[in-house]
Amino acid sequence: xxxxxxxxxxxxxxxxxxxxxxxxxxxxxxxxxxxxxxxxxxxxxxxxxxxxxxxxxxxxxxxxxxxxxxxxxxxxxxxxxxxxxxxxxxxxxxxxxxxxxxxxxxxxxxxxxxxxxxxxxxxxxxxxxxxxxxxxxxxxxxxxxxxxxxxxxxxxxxxxxxxxxxxxxxxxxxxxxxxxxxxxxxxxxxxxxxxxxxxxxxxxxxxxxxxxxxxxxxxxxxxxxxxxxxxxxxxxxxxxxxxxxxxxxxxxxxxxxxxxxxxxxxxxxxxxxxxxxxxxxxxxxxxxxxxxxxxxxxxxxxxxx
Length: 305
What we know:
Number of helices: 7
Strand order of the largest sheet: 8-13-5-6-7-12-11-10-9
Low-confidence stretches: 9-79
Mean pLDDT: 79
Radius of gyration: 42 Å
């Protein structure tokens, strides 16, 4: 009887030992430090280490788990804490270099304005001067594309604008004048001459080889071309009205049939986007008013390329 009881006790003890072995924690001992082992079921033999969630987009990398403390070591079964050196915060990006801003002048500003006109952010000029209208146009362009609305053209703004536009042609750059005048034709170097260049679209008022006034001018289209050659002023009309085209021709100085040098409000408003019916248009009303007062009947007119 006693032997039977001893056998029962031994069997019960064996069951307790087996059950107790199933519930024991699995640990790895490294020196004096005990760390939980992370087991990832997606890993296969020979795989490299998997990236932590904190290294992916949207991960915070702090290892916190619901129900656990800092470092993810709570009872929720979180990831092992990061043991590598802390990462420094990335240095803030340096601001883009400013190329042009309010008050700047020059050909580069003129090109900027011409490109802004191509994308309909500027509707006047180019003038070659970075004025308030240019500032507002640049701000609008920047804001539309999520760039800082500074109104200054930096390298990022300029690169974006260049990608969206084409290189401006000469008469886009000088749509409203400002172009340099061509050298005068040799026939303009003696006497009193209205020296008109189709190459530079300018008129020089010259006396004995000296230029007294220079203005921008516009010519007729391919269908109504302005005649070329040497002429003379034969008739002046301060408040002329064209009965043929039913339009005003102020400060008209006729030199070849119905073709005259005169002020054009259309040229003043539209620049080189338009053309005349063959006359030489001047857009600066004050300048042609002074010119009209100086030019006499009989003065020479030279129209050349």
